[in-house]
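Support request, please re-run this one:
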Amino acid sequence: MKHPPSIRLRVALWTAGLTAASLALLATSSWLYMHHQNLSAIDVLINAAAKEQLEEIAEEEDFNFDEFEAWLGQALLTSDGKLISATSQLSPEFITRILARPGPHTLRDGETTWRVVTHRDQGFISVATHDLAEFHQVLRGLATAYGLTLPLVALLAAGVSWSLAGRSLRPAETLAQAAENIGGGGGAARLPDAPTEDEIGRLTRVLNGMLARIERHHQQARRFAGDASHELRTPLTIIKGELDTALASPELPTSFETTLLSAQSEAARMQQIIEQLLTLSRYDAGIQRHHRESLDLAGLLRELSEDAELLSHRHQLKMAFDLPESLTVEANPAEIRRLLLNLLDNAAKYNRPNGRIEIQLRRASESLVEIEIANTGPLISPEDVERIFDRFFQVDESHHNTGCGLGLSLCRETARAHGGDIRIKVDEATGMNHFVVTLPAQV
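Re-run finished. Output below.
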């Protein structure tokens, strides 16, 4: 999935684009203005030269042009088109072309472009022309200057806007980083106060108010779960004790035994739920004690292989282990054992008849260890993958009476408490669900 460009980059690109477009419009307008003004000035000059010829011919009988200006061409003709005199730049053929169109206009003669004009008076025709080579050279130089300056100014504008946008967005970036660093521990989750009273400052205050409300509600929910679980332990223990005593009594009627056994099973299930809720509430509050020691995961999985074989035999499943000689992490053995047993129990419980369970332990990198437990159970849908670690969520409702939907949530909290995590990979090609637990490797 492609990520959209950052606001900072978009501001810089928009600024550069608008600056370039504005400068291009300004450059085009100024170039056209210079073209018009210079051409008008040339027209004024050649009109004056042509009129001056007609004034001079009236005073001189023998008229010849003085060729002092190479850029100025002149010719004098009678009213019937007979050439009287002309400068060397103008050929008779070119003069004939000039006479074909009255008024100032531009004509090309070989490699030279001329601005030409004709005037008729006192039985004579006066022709004046101006070489446009210097005129075109000036305009080309102006266009070149604009062409070189425009990209540089646009880049400069982009750089300035990039810098200013960065300074303007720095508080928002700091705010985002602070929000990302907010964890789910027991400490208060707050964003640092903004030093200014602008929009960023107001946003910070609004978010801190929202976080305070969320934290208050979260604390109430955690307190309720912890207090309720704690308060239920004592009466539930008494109920279990009474049930055990009743079942051990030799005077128990046979008709009551089945009912009491069912009640005992449900009491055990209730006790498991309460213990899991208490553990989760401790994780949420950040008060779960984690006695860490060096733990050989390969050895632990070999120990659990017997329990796994019993589970697989009960469900008629095939087991496959891929374990190294030794792979050590720093962890709490009891919690990691509970995590792995829970995953193995789920792999067996949620599997197909005559299915398969694969257990693999490997070093993912220098700092990470991966435990992968895969089974051939019904493939987990993408929607369920997103929710499977939610508390009390169960994918298969047919197993509702055998679980409470807290096991995987507890597995994830355990992995995260050890600095790792747990994720799911669904392989449609092999028809297997892969639960991958990552833990920090022992240095």
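The longest strand covers residues 112-121. The chain is about 55% helix and 20% strand.
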